[in-house]
From TrEMBL:
<dbReference type="InterPro" id="IPR009081">
    <property type="entry name" value="PP-bd_ACP"/>
</dbReference>
<feature type="domain" description="Carrier">
    <location>
        <begin position="37"/>
        <end position="87"/>
    </location>
</feature>
<dbReference type="InterPro" id="IPR036736">
    <property type="entry name" value="ACP-like_sf"/>
</dbReference>
<protein>
    <submittedName>
        <fullName>Methoxymalonate biosynthesis acyl carrier protein</fullName>
    </submittedName>
</protein>
<dbReference type="Pfam" id="PF00550">
    <property type="entry name" value="PP-binding"/>
</dbReference>
């Protein structure tokens, strides 16, 4: 297995549960607080829109996705579960795509 230094995870995690677990760990490291998968990280107060943008960057770098347009809604970043679902959606090939 080749590990690249510019990626936080050498190979993308595939299982939504694995993604949730990684995101919960990331949130705990960044906030100093333990979170459940369905806890609203912004509804609890103290976390800013700047933190939301940090989450976007983390998701893009860690999972090799691009979060754009309609996917930049706060609801996609409220919980570890919603972020894992977003990653899953963005990692799937587009319907009707050529795959090449």
């Amino acid at each position: 297995m080749t590990m690249s230094s510019d990626r936080a995870v050498p190979e993308p995690l595939g299982d939504p549960g694995d993604i949730e677990t990684e995101l919960l760990h990331h949130l705990e490291l960044r906030t100093g607080k333990t979170w459940s998968a369905d806890a609203d990280v912004f509804g609890s107060g103290g976390l800013s829109s700047l933190f939301a943008m940090e989450l976007v960057v983390h998701l893009e770098r860690t999972y090799g996705i691009a979060v754009r347009g309609a996917d930049l809604q706060m609801d996609n970043f409220r919980t570890a579960r919603s972020m894992a679902a977003l990653v899953g959606r963005l990692r799937r090939p587009a319907v009707g795509g050529s795959g090449a």
